[in-house]
Design goal:
Elements (H helix, E strand, L loop, with lengths): L1 H15 L8 H12 L1 H15 L6 H13 L3 H17 L3 H17 L3 H14 L7 H17 L3 H11 L7
Helix pairs in contact: 3-5, 4-5, 4-6, 5-6, 6-7, 6-8, 7-8, 8-9
Length: 173
């Protein structure tokens, strides 16, 4: 299973840089569908990682760990902790926990330079934010990630509205 994932990642990478032109359109579609299932895959990995932990935490504690690890530049570890939270959110049907986990995944991926993944998880977190009593704890950082992604991709006009929504004090006068 792991070897298949590695082969598929290599194929996706070669597709992205235009090196694998002899791959069939069906294979390309299959690989893109797998990429679209990234949240499902991360939750499955989170389940395995959670099961391997000798000390079990609750999902929100995993989110706190993920946030701290991202701030320390430990993005791979942050993604692992957030994937545990994502798994626990899905397993318990806790949409708020899922939103927090997706927020943390968006931060870790975007700060690590994986802008597409950061955008994807930030957008999903924003969609799920209304499930929380404090949606601003999801919307503020997720909009900041989206603003950063647009800015880094050279689209400052698209970044500004996200930064304005990320500003907890409203739009400056």
């Amino acid at each position: 299973m792991r070897a298949q994932m590695i082969v598929r990642l290599i194929l996706l990478t070669s597709l992205a840089v235009g090196c694998a032109s002899d791959i069939s359109p069906e294979k390309v579609a299959e690989l893109r569908a797998m990429e679209a299932e990234s949240a499902t895959r991360l939750a499955a990995e989170g389940e395995l990682l959670y099961g391997a932990n000798s000390t079990k935490l609750n999902g929100y504690e995993y989110c706190r760990l993920a946030g701290g690890l991202s701030e320390q530049g430990e993005f791979r570890r942050a993604i692992r902790e957030a994937s545990k939270a994502l798994y626990l959110g899905q397993a318990s049907n806790d949409a708020c926990l899922e939103a927090f986990a997706k927020r943390d995944l968006s931060v870790a991926y975007s700060w690590a330079g994986h802008l597409d993944r950061g955008r994807e998880f930030a957008s999903e977190a924003l969609r799920d934010a209304n499930a929380c009593r404090t949606p601003a704890s999801i919307t503020v950082p997720s909009n900041k990630v989206l603003g950063d992604v647009h800015l880094l991709e050279g689209r400052p006009g698209e970044a500004i509205p996200h930064y304005e929504r990320a500003c907890p004090f409203g739009r400056p006068a």
